[in-house]
Predict the structure.
Amino acid sequence: MDTRGGRLSLVRGGAAQEFTVTLRNGNSADHRHLLVAFQMEVLVGEPGDRPGSGPGFLLERFDQASGAWRPDELRVANDARPLSLYTGGGPLAREAVRVERYRLRATAGGPTGSTPVVVSFIDTDTDREAAAHVLLGHSTG
């Protein structure tokens, strides 16, 4: 995972911040459907903060084939989603490396606060995590 300063510091209604996720398959097997999934807990603002009134965040993934940014799923919830409910993902051959570009923006009506974004790597064919999840530091003001 790579982003400027090692974390995302967003401003409601402000510019999106980019980050990359590098996938390295050092396993002895190919992955046919490896999904990068994002989740964070509901933000709890500081006393005096205005509560959010909109969707909160917009996560996008850069589609290299079209050269355009496409919406991606950011789950905002305080519980874990069962791995069997995830679908999709792309191939990652044994010993292969793939870099994916993302950007996250806080919408004007969204909440403020701080909570890490949990980034999971799910093999949707086996309903298992292919690697330990990582945390991306995040705050929205």
